Amino acid sequence: MKPGFGEVLLTEGDPRVREDEERLVEEFRRQLDEGMWAAVPMVEPVSGRREAQLVRKFEEIPTDADRVIFFPRAAGG
User: Is pTM beyond 0.85 here?
Assistant: First the structure.
């Protein structure tokens, strides 16, 4: 996704601040409870290759992550 093209900011904050962390964890869990998947976008430092790391728990989010992207699971069977 390109910034500003379809992205929606759900919440933001500094996970080092207790109140912000509580709000971030609450929103993260809410999104997962609604059936969304979560991924952290990453860029390979040497090659510049872009990829995403799926996360299932708030604790799995790298401390240097700028954002978490939520997206719906694929439909069908």
Answer: no
